[in-house]
Amino acid sequence: MKRTTFSEHQRHIGIIGHSISHTMSPAMHTSAFKKLNLDYNYGVMDVSPDMLPNLISALRTLNFRGANVTIPYKEKVIHLVDEVSEEAKIINAVNTIVNNNGRLIGYNTDAHGIYISLAYYAEEIKNNHVVIFGAGGAARAAVYAVAKFFAPKRIMIVNRTLENASAIAKEFGPKFKLTKFFATNDHEVTIREINVAALLINTTSVGMKPLININPLPQDAVIQKDQIVLDIVYNPIETTLLKFAHHAGARTVSGIEMLLGQGAKAFELFTHHDFPMHTAREVVLKELMHVKGSNT
After folding, report:
1. Helix, strand, or coil here: 173?
2. The domain that contains 65 carries what CATH number?
3. Catalytic-residue membership of 74
4. What CATH number does the domain containing 229 carry?
5. Helix, strand or coil for residue 119?
6. Mean pLDDT of the chain
7. Interhelix angle for 25-36 vs 277-294, to 10°?
8. What span, in angstroms and rounded, lies between the C-alpha atoms of 131 and 5?
9. Choosing from 34, 74, 89, 175, which is the catalytic residue?
10. What are the pLDDT digits (tens) for 196-229?
11. Residues 233 and 123 in one domain
């Protein structure tokens, strides 16, 4: 585990994951603490799976306010906290843990990130068709958020392993009666669904550094003008999918919006203060541009 040094009087928050040197969370939250003059410290807790239970236990006793949780532990920590929010139960993933006087409460703020990213297009998504690529934790958060907040007519989950996508469709169907859920790994069906969708969402890691020259769509897919395309990947800032969509005349939404949206909700749970969105956005963009410049 990487050691993070905290001052004696600060309240501590960190991000728990493994191989997460790329994370933007420390820069984002630290800029927010400074902007509001809050006495918090944000560290990176890169732990191996066998150390995870001990680390979660330590959150109760140390001067921690809580932690963010990322890959690969969002599902594993569910069984290590004392209470789980209704959203996190449904999504089956926790990405934020709040220490409430020694009692650990797990939340999922990824759904809020999806909502913030797409709220501007709410009327266009309602009663329309949506295609979501992927069947992992991020896909579950996206399915939940889109169904709950935007009530589309239809959600098609596209994934190479059909069983995983079908399980999500079957699980969420009874929870959201206004939306029909389907799953596929078939090429022709995917192409047909892309053609009629109002919204496309990539929840996979396809297109993330270093594999930046690929996108999750089938090679012969055509994005329609005025479709909405959200890619939750935020590094690079404009993924190959978003470049492809922009060139086709679609409206594109960067993964930065998802990052900031989920971070804002977590920040408010930790501090009970409004998140300084503009300040955090500037810092994240600056950090990502710096990373891009150092890699060219």
Report:
1. helix
2. 3.40.50.10860
3. yes
4. 3.40.50.720
5. helix
6. 93
7. 140
8. 44
9. 74
10. 999 999 999 998 877 788 899 999 999 999 999 9
11. yes
